[in-house]
Amino acid sequence: MRSLQVKKEIFSVKGVFSISRSSVTSIEVVVVEISENSAIGRGECRPYQRYGETIEKTITQILSIREKLEQGLSREQLQLELPPSAARNAIDCALWDLEAKQSGRPVWQLAGLPEPGPVVTAYTISVAGQQKMVEDAKKNAHRPILKVKVSNQAVVETLKAIRMACPHAKLFIDANEAWSLEDYQRITPQLKELDIAMIEQPLLAGKDESLNSLPHPVPLCADESCHDSNTLEKLQGHYEIINIKLDKTGGLTEAIKTAKKAKALGFEIMIGSMLSTSLSIAPAFLLSGYASFLDLDGPILLAEDRPSGLKFDGSNIFPPDRNFWG
Length: 326
Hints:
Blueprint: E1 2-18, E2 23-36, E3 39-45, H1 55-63, H2 66-70, H3 75-81, H4 86-103, H5 107-110, E4 119-120, E5 123-125, H6 130-139, E6 145-149, H7 155-165, E7 170-174, H8 181-187, E8 196-200, E9 220-222, E10 241-244, H9 246-249, H10 252-264, E11 268-271, H11 278-285, E12 293-294, E13 312-313, E14 316-317
Parallel strand pairs: 5-6, 6-7, 7-8, 8-9, 9-10, 10-11, 11-12
Antiparallel strand pairs: 1-2, 2-3, 4-14, 13-14
Helix pairs in contact: 1-4, 6-7
């Protein structure tokens, strides 16, 4: 007989983490634990206000299928019980972890994925005044990849200063839906000469049809516009890259399906995550074989990660210890 436990946890951020629409000094996550006999599977999600999610709604959603979970609901059945959401993600990842611990086989093997090795993640420079952003970039100029969060103010000037401070880093930027069509047309022609590798979600999701008829001097990546495998066809022609996050796909099960379909449709893939702990990053890490870009730096942006979490060496991430997850 299974048993389910759900709890909220809070983790402090190093300083302040800001994007174009919000700032946080701490994060709240929901942790699911599913126990069966002597094995415990764990999963974490971070409910996201942008998608109408809250901690309370997410916990209620998880508890709404408690009886079915404790009676043995499978991962396949879970996909039909709950929509793609943070709630489904935490349960899905807990079920993968439980199966791995019961079977003695790692999740990557159970899922038919390549065995993961060390990978390099982008490191995020959050939105602030230009001087602060340039200072933060200088401190991290040794990192091979920097992801710069931007608003629609002083974008080119800030990126020019960051490029001078970090001449060898690969740079990509994330507007988090902050630009208007006029901003896009004004800003993007100037970014190619700065060797910007990618622009993530420049326009508001649902208002990005015009990208199909506009020039793309820098490849575009869909984040808020891309959720699961069902959203991919409508993004063709609008974007070259999609950002797969498990809190959007509703778990690793759908994320694998989304990655395979995206490849078949000709998209490049970024594997990303919400600002979260190693318990969220570990399942996403297993998808690195599909990715051209990785944005999995959440744990090193926190004041303190979970004990025994992922090992980071600079921007290098190492596979999770199976006692921790998977």
